[in-house]
């Protein structure tokens, strides 16, 4: 029972810190201390320590001479991460396509309609949620669970960079168009084309991330 409670508290701490890092509330190179986080969340330091270990493993934070700091934002990392996630998304979409039935396509079309409505409203947080729902439908049909574990790990680091793309005018609307192409190919049953569309969607997002990093002065 005690171990289960600790695990739950670790999940709470990890989720809170991950959200702070992805949204930018914790800035790159900002120091993170166990005591401060434990006090803020109202929990002991042990689950916070474990959460920090997990975030370090996932590349969201790193060790320094003073403890843990938030990992830096760099173009090199963004390029590597998006190249990786593009490859992975192509693979799982390709594997999932033959297993996606007409009911799944209908669900994807429904989520896509929600994505368009939310994109037009400019609700970034809402768009992120429905975007995850879109990809989850596809991932649920992928039989390669090891591949999906990679998606979860790399996806956390990708999320840090995706938020920069929303600053580019029209990004959400273009994202909807990119995702509609994925559904079109899935509906045709063309696994290879669906995979290519998924890969292109990720790489197009990277182009906008790169542009945003230039605009914000994070890279020159």
TrEMBL record:
Keyword terms = DNA-binding, Transcription, Transcription regulation
Q: Mention any Pfam family matching this sequence.
A: GntR
Which stretches make up the HTH gntR-type domain?
A: 7-73
The superkingdom listed in its UniProt entry is Bacteria
* Gene Ontology molecular function terms on file: DNA-binding transcription factor activity; sequence-specific DNA binding
Report whether Magnesium shows up as a keyword of the record: no
The residues forming a coiled coil are none
What is this protein's name? GntR family transcriptional regulator
The taxonomy runs: Bacteria, Pseudomonadati, Pseudomonadota, Gammaproteobacteria, Enterobacterales
């Amino acid at each position: 029972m005690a171990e289960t409670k600790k695990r739950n508290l670790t999940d709470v701490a990890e989720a809170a810190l991950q959200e702070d890092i992805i949204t930018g509330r914790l800035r790159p190179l900002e120091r993170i201390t166990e005591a401060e986080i434990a006090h803020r969340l109202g929990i002991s330091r042990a689950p916070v320590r474990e959460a920090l270990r997990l975030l370090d493993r996932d590349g969201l934070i790193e060790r320094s001479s003073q403890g843990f700091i938030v990992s830096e934002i760099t173009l090199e990392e963004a390029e590597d991460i998006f190249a990786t996630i593009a490859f992975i998304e192509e693979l799982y979409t390709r594997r999932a396509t033959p297993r996606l039935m007409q009911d799944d396509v209908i669900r994807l079309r429904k989520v896509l309609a929600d994505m368009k409505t939310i994109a037009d409203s400019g609700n970034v947080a809402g768009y992120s949620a429905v975007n995850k729902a879109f990809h989850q439908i596809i991932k649920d049909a992928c039989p390669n669970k090891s591949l999906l574990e990679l998606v979860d790990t790399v996806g956390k680091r990708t999320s840090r960079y995706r938020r920069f793309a929303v600053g580019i005018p029209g990004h959400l609307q273009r994202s909807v168009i990119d995702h509609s192409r994925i559904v079109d190919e899935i509906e045709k049953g063309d696994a290879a084309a669906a995979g290519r569309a998924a890969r292109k969607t990720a790489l197009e997002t990277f182009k906008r991330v790169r542009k945003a990093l230039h605009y914000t002065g994070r890279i020159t």
